[in-house]
Please model this.
Amino acid sequence: MSAGRPRVLLVEDEPAQRDLLSYNLEADGFAVILASDGEEALLVAEEEAPDVILLDWMLPTVSGIEVCRQLKTRAATRGVPIIMISARSEEVDRVRGLETGADDYVVKPYSIAELLARVRAQLRRTRPSAVGERLQWGDIVLDAETHRVTRAGETLKLGPTEFRLLATFMEKPGRVWSREQLLDRVWGRDIYVDTRTVDVHVGRLRKILRARGGDDPLRTVRGAGYALG
Model:
């Protein structure tokens, strides 16, 4: 799984539908995690920390609506956007899906292009740098589309790892990220990197951000990790 790519958990028990959606999501630049029933979805969502969940209503073992309800009550997954996919088109079903906690509701049959647009719309809220948005914090500006960072109008030269680290911090200013969370988000789960590597790269990022003067915007939280601001 590539580091930096937004991760979509696709929960679909129908193989043809799962393959079609998975292919299109990968082609659109997403890293896809698969689950084929409700029980697996609940486990994988907690283990893999996806950025968005595409959740079919009709699933074996545990229904999509129950999966949605449980994920929205858990601290680890509460903030992950869920797009419910269902053949149920009645207003009462849409309302039930949204009231259970789904962030969006898509009725089958749907257009793949529209579904991808809805995934990107949810990411714009939760992980804006992944969809090319421009982020700003104080005098630091990060343009994800052009891969350019400036501070007080001066261009800064960041390596790809430092760029992804800064984007992660700027998406959620004030949030304390543990070293393990930064490893998952910036390096990816499939790559073994020592947690001390995080300290090295945070040190490099600090040095670059302060190269032309200005305060150190990164905060070390003893025993917990790092935060912006």
In short: The chain has two domains: 7-126, 158-228.
